Amino acid sequence: MNTAGVFPPAFPPSPEPSWERLERLDWHLWMLAILLIFVLGISLLSFMFPSTFWFGEQLPVQRPQRAFFGFCVLLALVLVYLLQRQATIRRLKRQLFQSQTETIAARREAAIHSFQTLPGMSQFRDTLAMEFRRASASRANLAVLMIMASNATLEKLGEISNLLRALLRQGESLYRLSDTGIGIILPGLELNKAASFIAQAESFLGLPKGELEVTLTAYPDHAGSLTELEQQLRERVSA
Question: What's this model's pTM, rounded to 2 decimal places?
Fold first, then answer.
């Protein structure tokens, strides 16, 4: 009994940004800006205070006092405005975050539904038998891929199935063999071309190394009969 090797993908995943960390950094930046404005304002007022109240008594209409209190009011208004703008921005960011959270949840549900609605094992066996009879009658090739992801969630398997579906040509089909396995029937595909398809799929998926285990079984290279082909696939699914 001949079985093919395993081809793990070799591209690490990109880290997802943390919204909480970004919001915390943004808040720290705003607090630093407000603190700097406050310190600069207090420093300027402390320099103005002596000339206004100690050395400005000979000036007419007490203009330094008016300028001093006017600058105090202006500083207070600027600080209040910055705090209000920061509160508005934080509220909008939270609304945006909630909207994106709902979008992500909808995508997750769609991915899970996409995987769960794939044709099951019975349809896989029926199609495999039909394609095998057609291949044996026309002396054509037939390739079957088994993609196992033992540690993947249903959401991840749904994303994988959606990406794999985009690579399939007319006549090729995708199936859900188990809660952790996906099967692909590739009629008329030679062994070397099937290996190229695996490399293309792994590059397209971009998953970390070792997350997927891909097994290729081909007729007539690995199996000479339908019974032998089904036996190899059955052993792979139950492994």
Answer: 0.58
